[in-house]
């Protein structure tokens, strides 16, 4: 089998891929993630996932490279990583009693063999009405400053939701493993 490389510096994606019993390395894709004019949210996620895989694939043409990108949106506004408590608070107030959609795209690329597999997982998160005190307590405990939307669904952030609609719960974290495993099996990797 070809060496496996995750085109990401995300700790969350690395932890997810580590659930599969396959050795892999991580490589920084160094891709400009700015949105393009008139680009839909799912199209942006697909474009960036492929760009990340292609950037690393150009340096490692003899590998299987996995690129992924997630675009979150609520009420037409992009949900970025807040970076600090002030922005996390603002994002969670925006999300309170609303629905947010997360498009997580993946591109699995084998440059030398000419293989490209792409897919998008879409997850909708319905937030319950959040009081300012709940938001403050949540931020103080979870410190979700490096997560789009200002929450960690795999941690205490799950308590902020009334429901989640998804085909793959790992998609919301940043790498939909059901589809990744299917793609890797299609390329000949043995996964139970």
Description:
The structure is a single chain. This protein has 192 residues and is an alpha/beta fold. It has five helices and seven strands. The chain has one domain: Maf protein, CATH 3.90.950.10. The model has no long low-confidence stretch (mean pLDDT 97).
Could you list some keywords that capture this structure?
Maf protein, 30% helix, 192 residues, alpha/beta, seven-stranded mixed β-sheet
Strand content range: 25-35%
- Mean pLDDT across all amino acids: 97
The total of beta strands comes to 7
- CATH topology type: Maf protein
User: How many structural domains does the protein architecture include?
Assistant: 1
SS element count, helices = 5
Computed over alpha carbons, the radius of gyration is 17 Å
Largest sheet: 7 strands, mixed
Helix content: 25-40%
Please give the alpha-carbon distance between the first and last residues: 16 Å
Which CATH architecture is right? Alpha-Beta Complex
Tell me, briefly, the overall form.
elongated
CATH class descriptor:
Alpha Beta
Ranges where pLDDT stays below 50 over 5 or more residues in a row are none
> What order do the helices and strands follow?
EHEHEEHEEHEH
Structural class: alpha/beta
Q: Summed up, what is this model?
A:
With 192 residues, the chain is an alpha/beta fold. Helices cover 30% and strands 26% of the residues. Strands 1, 2, 3, 4, 5, 6 and 7 form a 7-stranded mixed beta sheet that branches.
Topology, please?
Elements: E1 4-6, H1 11-17, E2 25-26, H2 41-59, E3 64-74, E4 77-79, H3 85-95, E5 99-110, E6 115-127, H4 132-142, E7 161-165, H5 177-186
Parallel strand pairs: 1-2, 1-3
Antiparallel strand pairs: 3-4, 3-5, 5-6, 6-7
């Amino acid at each position: 089998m070809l060496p496996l490389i995750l085109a990401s510096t995300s700790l969350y994606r690395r932890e997810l891929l580590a659930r599969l019993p396959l050795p892999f390395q991580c490589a920084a894709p160094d891709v400009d993630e700015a949105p393009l004019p008139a680009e839909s949210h799912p199209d942006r996620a697909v474009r960036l996932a492929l760009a990340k895989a292609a950037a690393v694939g150009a340096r490692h043409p003899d590998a299987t490279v996995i690129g992924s990108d997630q675009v979150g949106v609520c009420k037409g506004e992009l949900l970025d990583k807040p970076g600090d408590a002030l922005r996390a608070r603002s994002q969670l107030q925006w999300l309170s009693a609303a629905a947010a959609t997360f498009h997580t795209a993946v591109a699995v690329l084998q440059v030398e063999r000419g293989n490209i597999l792409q897919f998008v997982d879409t997850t909708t998160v319905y937030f319950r009405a959040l009081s300012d005190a709940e938001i403050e307590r949540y931020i103080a405990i979870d410190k979700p400053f490096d997560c789009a939307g200002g929450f960690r669904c795999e941690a205490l952030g799950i308590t902020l939701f009334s429901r989640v609609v998804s085909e793959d719960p790992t998609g919301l974290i940043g790498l939909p493993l059901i589809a990744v495993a299917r793609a890797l099996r299609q390329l000949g990797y043995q996964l139970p």
